[in-house]
Specification:
Layout lengths: L2 H15 L1 H7 L26 H11 L4 H8 L3 H15 L4 H10 L34 E4 L5 E4 L2 E2 L5 H11 L8 H9 L8 H12 L10 E4 L2 E4 L4 E3 H17 L3 H13 L12 H27 L3 H14 L4 H13 L3 H19 L5 H12 L5
Parallel strand pairs: 1-6
Antiparallel strand pairs: 1-2, 2-3, 4-5
InterPro entries: AfsR-DnrI-RedD_regulator, BTAD, OmpR/PhoB-type_DNA-bd, Sig_transdc_resp-reg_C-effctor, TPR-like_helical_dom_sf, Tscrpt_reg_LuxR_C, WH-like_DNA-bd_sf
Keywords: DNA-binding, Transcription, Transcription regulation, Two-component regulatory system
Organism: Kitasatospora cystarginea
Amino acid sequence: MTGLVACSLVGARTSINGLGRTADAREPGPENQGAVMPTTATAAPPTTALTGPERDVLYAIGCGLTDAEIATALAVPEHAVAGHLGRILATLGLRDRAAAIVHAFDCGLVTPGHGPRGQVAGPVPRTTVRRPTAPVPEPWLRICVLGPLRAWRAGQPVDLGPVRQQAVLAALALCPDRAVSRHELLDGVWGMEPPPGNVVPVYIYRLRKILHTGDRPDWVIRRDQCGYRLVGGAVEVDVARMEELVTAAGAAERACDLAEAVRACSRALDLFRGEPLAGLPGPLAELERLRLTERRITLVQRKAGWQLRLGRNADAIAELSALAAAQPLNEPVAALLMRALHRSGRQAEALAVFDRTRRRLGDDLGVLPSEMLRQTHRTVLRGDRGA
């Protein structure tokens, strides 16, 4: 990576982290509306219609960063950046990325010469960013299982070794509140084909060396009379963070703040980086793959339901369409997509979803649509958009 790009990412991360407040403070008012550039994007809604992460992405796009650079700066998957951009264009009624760049300047979100592309080194000036008074310390070890297993030690990626060894670490990461015995690891990682010899302590020893800190190689993984466990406080697992965000989304819903519920749920979904525990062997990995995949489907459905209640039909349609394509036999997803399309006045497309799902259910499973899906079909046929 060149020095210029590296400095750009530093500036982008600093600017984007403070964007939520800065963007709100820089919405065009009567005193600066006459200074914007003439463009077709000037009639678009203000950026207050966007979520916090979407404003972050719009700012970065306005600064000229690529999707890969934005993903690095915001610490999110690259596909999540593309998803945010699609929702930005739909919400603001913009045609393409170029129009989004112009809109970022028109609304005052980006000032010429002050983005990361305009700086060779150093962060964005203090006058444009409000920084937290005390930085939150990074955990020593980060483990991500919502995708291929990955780990970072003090911010640096770690080579976790062979797949069975990775599966042992994944088992510990998925049981953060208790010790995992040697027999549980053998059953969960090897199943009915136990390995020759006493390999669990060997893998634990190797993982301790890989994840060591200073002269304390067993600091991250400890053993007690019940088995092995990861040391609390030193390790952050993305599943735990995801569940925290889901809890926050539920609390926001109970407080009747559906916009905040959608934001929290979006952040939880952004933690997924593909198939959970992709490529890892063993019964435990297989069961967790299924559980976490279902968890993601449920979160997309909850988020879409909240978006529909907020009138954000286009956002719901975009995410449900992708999920329905990946889960063609999932009737609740198909029903929710039909409702979203119907509420947007796209009755023919809603009926097409029903026909497509009905055919797949018959061809693949030999069953008819459930009563729930048939009821949604009747609602669309009646033209009752309020249902």
